[in-house]
Amino acid sequence: MAILEGIKLGRKVDNRWLWRELSFSLSGGTRLGLVGATGTGKSQLLRAIAGLDSLDQGVIKYKDVCLSGWSLPAYRWEVIYLHQRPTMFEGTVEENLKIVYGLKIHQDKKYNRDLILGLLDLFQRPLEFLQQSATNLSGGEGQIVALMRALQLEPMILLLDECTASLDSETTGRVESAIAAWLSQNQQRACIWTSHDSHQIERVTNKKLLLSSYG
Amino acid sequence: MADTYLSISYLQLAFSVLLILINVVLSLRLRLGLEKSLIIASLRMIVQLLLIGYVLEWLFTLSNPWSVMAIALIMAGIAGISAVNRTSRRFSGIYWRSLLSVLVAAFLITNLSVAGIIQVKPWYNPQYLIPMLGMILGNTLTGISLGLDRFMEGLVTNRNAIETLLTLGANRWEASHREIKNAVATGMIPIINSMMVMGLVSLPGMMTGQILAGANPLDAVRYQIIITFAIASGSALGTLGVVLLAWLALFSSNHQLRCDRLFLAK
Fold first, then answer.
1. All structural domains of chain B with their residue ranges
2. d(Cα A79, Cα A53) in Å, to the nearest integer?
3. What is the residue-wise DSSP string for chain A?
4. A77, A103, B5, B240: which has the highest count of C-beta atoms within 10 A?
5. Inter-chain touch B167–A82, beta carbons under 8 Å
6. What confidence tier does B77 reach under pLDDT thresholds 50, 70, 90?
7. Least confident range of A144-148, B120-124, B136-140, B154-158
């Protein structure tokens, strides 16, 4: 059964179709790779799935309910989009992780330090990493914090937009295994990847969706 | 009143031009390139003020509430449009949002202070209503344009931060609260700063004018206090109003930031 479905999606930019009649479906365990040259709108598709941009055509269904039927904050908690260039807020890494618990939708949950310590271990970062100033992190470290910030919310679907773009191959490997571990914790989970590295797409995905420039 | 202050003749006005000429000469000698704008600005100021002097003289003879209201509406309309003209970005519908904020803020505050506090009778007495409205409008206009500009600029600059919060489950209010706060604060800073040092560093123009025209300083101070509060609450209401209306336009009800609705002013 599909957990996330896109049906005949279309998006126009400057009166040109970026993509059109695009359909896909994700069931538990699906790792979908978006493939296509630069400028074919891979990020735009992920943004549309996250509900950040509107579609010009088609519908997205999550758990058989159209996005218009979802309260977007509740939906986005389960379907998290990870930016190509994640934003860190002022303060330490730990404060950046805690920031989500100040939001209304997560007010019943508490910051789980043990879970974070486990993730630190996985990314082989020392405990002091949590006390570092988040705005001074390198691009790669920022991506790790952003991933930890999302994983602690235990989402059902991750939309990974070039999420290892500024990482060395060793850390890339750790990120890939962290995501594999997150997937294996629940049979219903799925994710969508974009990457400029075709080897990575081969390695981490089990299904592909080709985006080609329209017209 | 005629014996308590010195009337100023046109010859004396002409002498005051000499004050500006000092700066024009300096600008020419040091090649600062400011002489042209100095002269244009000075000429505009003279012509506009003389004109408004005659207009006010005529206005004060009005005894019909409708004509006073019509003049007040025209003033507020100009303020609403000028506020937008000073911003560097636009979205469709920005003008009516600015107009609505100016109208509601200025009319509410002007009426409360003129009819409610100073208790002018009749309430539309133009000698009180029009100058009060003018001062409130001038400051509300500044607040609105600063707040609006800061809000739109903040959304563009911090788009990633806002969207990061949205992707983590923030609603549109939570995601943009910081921008709203900064924008309203930016609009309010001029009046807060001027209240801080009022009487210490700066003697407010209105009060100085009243004193020069022969009013008792303590009476002038009382008027100044009412005016300052009216100005502060007028610009606060106007700024908050326009920022919230812009917020409604730039964040959709399904919690999306619509930067695509913004465009640069030509």
1. 1-59, 64-264
2. 14
3. -EEEEEEEEEEEETTEEEEEEEEEEEETT-EEEEE--TTS-HHHHHHHHTTSS--SEEEEEETTEEGGGS-HHHHHHHEEEE-SSPPPPSSBHHHHHHGGGGSGGGTT----HHHHHHHHHHTT--GGGGGSBGGG--HHHHHHHHHHHHHTT--SEEEEESTTTTS-HHHHHHHHHHHHHHHHT-TT-EEEEE-S-HHHHHHH-SEEEE-----
4. A77
5. yes
6. very high
7. B120-124
Which helix or strand (DSSP H or E) is residue B264 part of?
A: strand B263-264
Mean pLDDT in residue range B58-62: 85
Q: How confident is the model at residue A94 (pLDDT cuts 50, 70, 90)?
A: very high
Report the residue from B161, B167, B170 with minimal CB separation from A81. B167
- Residues in chain A whose Cβ is within 8 Å of chain B: 50-54, 67-68, 72-74, 76-77, 80-83, 85-87, 89, 99-100, 102-106, 146, 149-150, 153
- Check pLDDT > 90 for residue B62: no
Q: Which CA distances in Å does B40 have to B16, B22, B43? A: 16, 15, 5
pLDDT higher than threshold 80 for residue A157:
yes
DSSP 8-state secondary structure symbol assigned to residue B227: H
pLDDT at residue B214, rounded to an integer: 87
Q: Identify which of B19, B172, B97, B161 has the alpha carbon closest to the alpha carbon of residue A149.
A: B161
Q: What is the mean pLDDT of residues A33-50?
A: 92
Q: What is the pLDDT of residues B163-176, one digit of tens each?
A: 999 999 999 999 99
pLDDT for position B202: 77
B35-59 vs B126-157: helix crossing angle, rounded to 10: 140
Cβ-nearest to B170 among A85, A87, A103: A103
Contact assignment for A51 to B168 by CB distance below 8 Å: no
**What is the mean predicted confidence (pLDDT) over A36-63?**
94
Helix (H, G, I), strand (E, B) or coil at B60: coil
pLDDT digits (tens, 9 = 90+) for B196-219: 988 887 788 888 888 888 889 999
Which CATH code is given to the segment(s) A2-210?
3.40.50.300
Q: Where are the domains of chain A?
A: 2-210
Quickly state the pLDDT bin for A213 (edges 50, 70, 90).
low
- B263: which strand partners? B90
Task: Say if the Cβ atoms of A51 and B171 lie within 8 Å.
Answer: no
